[in-house]
Amino acid sequence: MTELQDAWADLLRRRPAFRDSLTIYGEILDAWARWSPPRPLALPLDRARWRGAWERGEPLVEHAAATLRPSDVEDLLGAAMESLARAQPTLGASLQRLAEAWDRGAVAPAALLPARGRVGSGAVEQASGLAADVVAFLAGASLRPALEAMFAPAREHLDEAAWSLGVCPFCGGPPAFADVIEDGRRRLACHLCGGAWLFAKLRCPFCGVEGAEHQVRLTPEEAREEGYLVAACRSCRAYMKEVDRRARWNAGPALIEDWGTPHFDLVAHRQGYWRPTPSIVQLG
Ligand SMILES: [Zn+2]
Ligand SMILES: [Zn+2]
Questions:
Q1: Which ligand is nearest to the CA of 139?
Q2: Whole-model pTM above 0.70?
Q3: Which domains does the chain have, with CATH numbers?
Q4: Other CB atoms closer than 10 Å to residue 66's CB: what's the count?
Q5: What is the pLDDT along the chain (284 residues), one digit of tens a residue?
Q6: Which ligand is the nearest neighbour of the Cα of 195?
Q7: How far does the centroid of ligand 2 lie from the alpha carbon of residue 238, in Å?
């Protein structure tokens, strides 16, 4: 079992009520565990280039767009599409169109990568008729092992002071979860590549507005749990879930905590807030 599979099994023990509605996440993690890169994907070491990109406020996604081949990710994407078709049968026909477009080369991995302000280039939606949030879900369910391998050499070279933007410094993806770490700072997590970076506490990563007056903290009555909350922005109405690790020392990795707290997503959703990478319970 991988670390993520272990953490997911642990989460389902803590929250057994979600076992049935969240089956797809266990399947995704199993597919990731079965996967091995068809060729070495790691970025060639080039600290000067990475630092230069970060100084200009550019993530390293261009490299992924230029080098990822369909064969690098198609096992992952295929498995994610099959799981999604099982979880949401109404998406079957659109997923079939995507599979056909992929096979004839009309859609390539770059179409799923983060672009400015969104996940994917829009080509997947065009070829398949899938909604943008479904495409974002698919990207999240399929790209991570490949992008994690690709950006692994760059992780340790990210200087905390070098990056202050609200997107992942590696793949350019939107933050998907926030951790308040031991020293009280806020660390954002990218599910698309497994990246993480420190971010200002009172700034919205999605629209950049600054100040406590723009933030809403939802700790809904029916889902109140020490250490967990929804941090939303009054200005752009985006939200992110957050766990305070000082109160929750046994919390799992950000991805697992995010996937395992769909009840918070439903509360945020009902109040009219949105997130760039939706939970499975928000699709369909
Ligand atoms: Zn990322
Ligand atoms: Zn905002």
A1: 1
A2: yes
A3: 3-149 (no CATH), 163-282 (3.90.1670.10)
A4: 8
A5: 999 999 999 999 999 999 999 999 999 999 999 999 999 999 999 999 999 999 999 999 998 899 999 999 999 999 999 999 999 999 999 999 999 999 999 999 999 999 988 999 999 999 999 999 999 999 999 999 999 999 999 999 998 888 999 999 999 999 999 999 999 999 999 999 999 999 999 999 999 999 999 999 998 776 678 899 999 999 999 999 999 999 998 899 999 999 999 999 999 999 999 999 999 998 86
A6: 1
A7: 6
C-alpha of residue 134 to centroid of ligand 1, in Å: 18
Q: How far is the CA of 193 from the centre of ligand 2 (A)?
A: 23
Instruction: With beta carbons less than 8 A apart as the criterion, state whether 258 and 177 touch.
Output: yes
> How many Cα atoms sit within 13 Å of 23 on the Cβ side?
9
Q: How far is the CA of 41 from the centre of ligand 2 (A)?
A: 34
Q: Given phi > 0 = left and psi -120 to 50 = alpha, else beta, which region is 57? A: left
